[in-house]
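User: Can you predict the 3D structure of N-acetyltransferase? Sequence below.
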Amino acid sequence: MAGVLLDDRAQDVRVVDEAEGPRYALYVDAEQAGVMVYRIVGRRRVLGHTEIDEGYCGLGLSRVLIRAVLNDLQQRKEKVTIYCPAIDRFIKQSRQVRRGHRHGSPGNLERAHSGWSRDLTLA
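Assistant: Sure. Here are the predicted structure tokens for N-acetyltransferase:
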């Protein structure tokens, strides 16, 4: 079952947790415009690749998707590991999160495209 994380009817943008994916999906005008894949490893959410479809690039939608996901995980006080450079850039530019002290790799993502990861505790 999908959980709606963001429903901005003024801009016709929705972010939905499609747990059966497992992924978060971003919709614009009811069309899928982007995704963020994840896995659950123990009590930790492992965020992988974030992608915005070519026709929607340059509109700031990756920030909308990332912000909605991090806000949801922050409200639920989830521990998070990221493998996505776009999420890392967002976090570095945001005062929204408190960085964790552990760095590691609690879950291997097939789509991880870098040799680093960052563990976070969302404040």
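The two ends are 27 Å apart (CA to CA). The helical segments are 61-75, 85-92.
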